[in-house]
Each structure stands twice: as structure tokens, then as C-alpha cells.
Specification:
Structural class: alpha+beta
Number of domains: 2
Largest sheet: 4 strands, mixed
Radius of gyration: 24 Å
Helix content: 40-55%
Distance between the termini: 38 Å
Strand order of the largest sheet: 3-4-6-5
Strand content: 5-15%
Length: 350
């Protein structure tokens, strides 16, 4: 939650015959440029008089990566939320490109301000022929823009908070990105693009989309005060695979932070507050859809519990590594003792 587009000519290499002449091998892969060309968001042009019905009927409309990005930009312009996220990333000078990430997702190169979207190793022409992959690319793009919004609003969590707080903040960030994506696609549904909404319902976040719509049916006004979005946010935690996957990635990142820190204090000691949690769920229009819920998120086991045994073990090992001094792969709890036993060792890891 991508491609290179429409001419009928093939980009596949000519088939090769093995020496024995028995098996013909077709190379169906396309070499990826290690340094793909990126384009600034403000340079993406939206074609005039785009006929979305024609695109649906004739998906081979796309010819280049620029066509894909222009199509995404034109659709996001019809969602107030996605449009504001686009303008936010645009103002920060972000660039975007598509590349085979083998991950069905995206990658943010923070220092270079580059957004890499997964194109599933498809050319633009192939992408244009598949509504499934086009919509997947669009939804991933919206989610990535929300993640960029978080990058612009908050410093790296590990620089300010302890590991357990970082785990909680990363969960909130991931849940918020998916929740805001649901809202943006709902707005596209209201603009007449019901097929994109149906695609979202059939995706991994379909349960969140259904909870969102059910609450709206009972209380239509909840679309304006954010309460329907709060229920979608809660539903994110109901899927343990989402929570455990987020925790696993966070713990892997924290391992790297600890390894790179050396003798320095790897993490911050700032106290996590309910205001901080709630501020992460502010929409571009200023509405905080989790206002008043920060205390619950911080203390309710449904939101704060670490249930996966593997992640628990990983977390406890991380906390143990923070308290010991490693010298030649030997752990010491007393740094003074370690220095006495290895007086000539210069590299100590906390």
C-alpha cells in the first residue's frame, strides 16, 4: 500500500536456450536502477480533464512513472485529508519514485527526503492494466504521506524516550497511519470512487474500514468530531499480527540504536505524557480524534500489553543489554571490574 507504463512492446530479454537444448529459460525480471530517479512532489503535474471512467475501461493509459504519480495526485486532490498531507510533504521538499522493494510497502529515506514506493517489479504498462495494484499503490502512497507528516512533527522517539515508551509510540504511529488512510479512502468514496473503498475493505485493513463505516451508520456526526476514526484506531490493536509485527520492527530498530551508541546513553529519559500520545492523532485540519483517550492508551493492557512471547524475550534481552558492559563478548554488570580485567580494551558497549 506501484509501476512503468503503456506501450505494447515488451521489456523482457530474449529467451535463452540451455546447452542441452531441452529447457527454454525466460528472464521475466527487470534490473532495478540502484539510484532511481526521483521527482519532487511539487513538480508532479495533474493532467487536465482526466476521465477516470476511461482509465478504468482502458487501464493501459499509463506510459511512464510520471503518469502513475499524476494519477495518484489527481485522486488525492479529491480527498481533503490526503490533499493536505500531500501539501505538507510538498512543502517539506520531499521527492518520490517507484522501485521494486519486494515488500508491498514503502521506504522513507529521511536524510535525503525521498519516498520510495514499491512497484511490485511491474512496468508502468503492467501497473496500468491492474486495478488491484494501482489501488494498492495509491493506498500505500497515502499512508506514506501520513508517515511523512509524523516525521515532520516529531523527533526520533528513541532520542527522547526509553524503549518501552518507544514501543508504545511506534504502535500509536502505525495505528494512526492506517486509520488516517481509512479516512482518506472514505473521502474518495464520497467523491465517487467506490471501487477504491471496496479494494480497501478487501485488504489487511478491511476490518478497520468496516468498523469505521458501522460507527458512521449509527452516528453520522462522528465523521466530523473524529469519534468514528477513534474506533478504527482501536480496531488496529484488535489484530495481534499487526501489533506484534510493529513491535518486532521496533525492537529490531532499537537493537541497532543500542549497538551504534557504544558507551553513550542510547535512549532518552523524557517522561511520556498523555498529551504527547494524543498529539500524534491530530488530523491536518486540527481535530485530535483521540482527545481525552491518552490515559486509556497508556494504561489499558489492550493498548499497552506486550503479548507475543518472542517479542517479550527480545525486549527483556534489550533491557538486559542496556544494563551490562560488553567486553570481548563477555557481559559485566560492573564497568569498573570490566576495565580491571581488560585494561587495554577500548571498545565498551553499554
Amino acid at each position: 500500500m506501484k509501476a512503468d507504463r503503456l506501450s505494447r512492446k515488451t521489456y523482457l530479454k530474449k529467451h535463452q536456450v540451455r546447452p542441452d537444448g531441452e529447457i527454454t529459460v525466460y528472464d521475466l525480471t527487470q534490473k532495478e536502477d540502484p539510484n532511481p530517479e526521483t521527482v519532487f512532489l511539487h513538480r508532479i503535474k495533474i493532467a487536465e480533464n482526466i476521465d477516470y471512467e476511461e482509465i478504468s475501461a482502458l487501464p493501459c493509459y499509463f506510459e511512464t512513472q510520471d503518469d502513475i504519480l499524476s494519477w495518484c495526485a489527481a485522486l488525492m486532490a479529491e480527498s481533503p485529508t490526503a490533499n493536505m498531507l500531500w501539501k505538507n510533504a510538498q512543502a517539506q521538499g520531499w521527492r518520490v519514485t517507484t522501485i521494486d522493494l519486494c515488500s508491498n510497502g514503502f521506504h522513507l529515506d529521511i536524510p535525503a527526503k525521498k519516498l520510495l514506493l514499491d512497484n511490485f517489479a511491474m512496468t508502468p504498462a503492467a501497473m496500468g492494466r491492474s486495478a488491484y495494484f494501482r489501488y494498492t499503490l495509491l493506498i500505500v502512497f497515502i499512508r506514506a504521506l501520513r508517515d511523512i507528516w509524523h516525521e515532520g512533527c516529531h523527533d526520533p522517539f528513541e532520542n527522547e524516550y526509553c524503549p518501552e515508551d518507544v514501543l508504545m509510540l511506534e504502535r500509536v504511529r502505525a495505528a494512526d497511519c492506517d486509520s488516517v488512510t481509512v479516512l482518506a479512502v472514505w473521502e474518495l468514496r464520497g467523491a465517487g470512487h467506490a471501487d477504491i473503498w471496496r479494494h480497501l475493505i478487501g485488504s489487511a485493513e478491511g476490518d478497520m474500514a468496516l468498523v469505521f463505516t458501522r460507527f458512521l451508520e449509527r452516528d453520522p456526526a462522528s465523521a466530523f468530531d473524529g469519534s468514528a476514526l477513534a474506533y478504527a484506531f482501536r480496531q488496529w490493536y484488535a489484530d495481534e499480527s499487526r501489533v506484534d509485527g510493529c513491535d518486532h520492527e521496533t525492537l529490531e530498530a532499537l537493537d541497532d540504536v543500542l549497538f551504534d551508541a557504544g558507551e553513550n546513553n542510547a535512549f532518552g529519559d523524557r517522561e511520556l505524557t498523555t498529551q504527547m500520545l494524543e498529539s500524534m492523532t491530530c488530523l491536518p485540519d486540527g481535530i485530535c480524534y483521540l482527545s481525552g483517550c491518552g490515559e486509556i492508551i497508556m494504561h489499558d493492557p489492550f493498548f499497552a500489553g506486550l503479548r507475543d512471547e518472542i517479542n517479550q524475550t527480545h525486549f527483556f534481552q534489550l533491557m538486559y543489554d542496556m544494563e551490562v558492559t560488553m567486553v570481548n563478548n563477555v557481559p559485566f554488570r560492573d564497568r569498573t571490574l570490566a576495565r580491571k580485567l581488560f585494561p587495554h580494551e577500548e571498545s565498551f558497549k553499554n
